[in-house]
Amino acid sequence: MRNFFSLARAMRVLGGVATALALGGCAGMGGDYRSGVDTETVINAIEQDDASALRAMVSRGTISVNQRLRAPGYSGGAPLIALAARAGSVEILRYLIAAGADINASTPVNETPLMLAAYFYGEGGSGSADRHDAAVRLLVESGASLENVPNNYTPLAYAAYNNRQRALRYLIERGARLDADASGGMVYVNTPLMMAAMQGHRDVVRVLLLAGADPLVRVRNGHTAREFALKYRHSHVEPMLACAESLPSGLRYAQHCEGRVATTR
C-alpha cells in the first residue's frame, strides 16, 4: 500500500478535496458494515486481478458491480471499479465495465477510476507502470471522462504529480485539458503543470509546456507553476518555466525555449 499512503500525504500538503482522505489501514477490514460483504475477500480478489472470483460473487448476489466497499484509505466506502483501477487490475476492470459498472464512479474525495489508474504503479523493485498504463487505456477507450467535477484534480494532474509519463502523454493525445478548468488565468485547484513543478518532474514539465500548457495560470490567492518550483527549490525546473512565462502571446515554447534551457539540470 506504499503508493497509496504517499498519495494521501501528498494530497494533505496540496490541500483541496483530498485533504478529507480518511486512512483506514491495510488489515482487519472484516465485513462491510452496511452490506455484510466479506471485504477482505473482495479486496484480495481485486489485488490479484481475479476476475473469475469477482464474477462468481456477483453471480451469487454477494455483491453488485457498483458495490461500494470500505477499503484501505476509504473508510466511507469506494466503488469496486475505483479499487480495481487503483490496483491496476485490468481483467477485473474489463469485467466490471462489460457488466455495466459506472465507469466514472468516484470515491468520497472525488477521485475517479481514471485518476487512480493514472497515479498508481506497480510495487516492488521494478516499479513497473505497465498494468496501470493498460488500465488507463482501457478506461479511456471504454468512455471514462478525461476530466473531473469542477474545482477538483484531474487524471492528467494525478499523472503529472507522480511522474507517470506514458499515462500523461496518452491522456494529452486523447484530449485531456492541459490547464484543467482554469478561467481568466485563474484556477481553484493545481493544474497538471503546477503538480509537476512542485514535484520537480522536469520531463513532465517539458511535455506539458510543449503541448501548450499555460505557465501563467495562477491558483487563486496562490502560486504559478514557476513559483511552486521556486518554493520547493527545483532549480532544474524553474528556468524552463521562467522562459515559458516570458514568451509573448502566440510564441511557442518549442521554438523559443528548448535550446535556451536544454542543458539546465
Question: Can you characterise this structure?
Answer:
By secondary structure, this protein is mainly α. The protein folds into 2 domains: about 1-150, Serine Threonine Protein Phosphatase 5, Tetratricopeptide repeat (Alpha Horseshoe), CATH 1.25.40; about 180-265, Alpha Horseshoe (Serine Threonine Protein Phosphatase 5, Tetratricopeptide repeat). Helix content is about 50%, strand content about 5%. It contains 15 helices and 4 strands. Strands 1-2 form a two-stranded antiparallel sheet. Strands 3-4 form a two-stranded parallel ribbon. Helix 10 packs parallel to helix 12 (about 225-230). The longest helix has 13 residues, at about 1-15. It starts with a helix and ends with a helix.
What characteristics describe this protein?
single chain, two-stranded parallel sheet, two-stranded antiparallel ribbon, mainly alpha, Serine Threonine Protein Phosphatase 5, Tetratricopeptide repeat, 265 residues, 2 domains
Radius of gyration: 19 Å
CATH topology of the largest domain: Serine Threonine Protein Phosphatase 5, Tetratricopeptide repeat
**Helical residue percent band:** 40-55%
CATH architecture of the largest domain: Alpha Horseshoe
Tell me the structural class. mainly alpha
The major pleated sheet works out as: 2 strands, antiparallel
Average pLDDT over all residues = 87
Topology as a string of helices (H) and strands (E): HHHEEHHHHHHEHHEHHHH
Strand order of the largest sheet: 1-2
Distance between the termini: 32 Å
Total count of helical runs of at least 4 residues:
15
β-sheet strand percentage? 5-15%
CATH domain class of the largest domain: Mainly Alpha
| DSSP E strands, number | 4
pLDDT under 50 segments (min length 5)? 15-31
Could you say how many structural domains there are in total? 2
Which shape, going by the Cα principal axes? elongated
CATH superfamily caption of the largest domain: Ankyrin repeat-containing domain
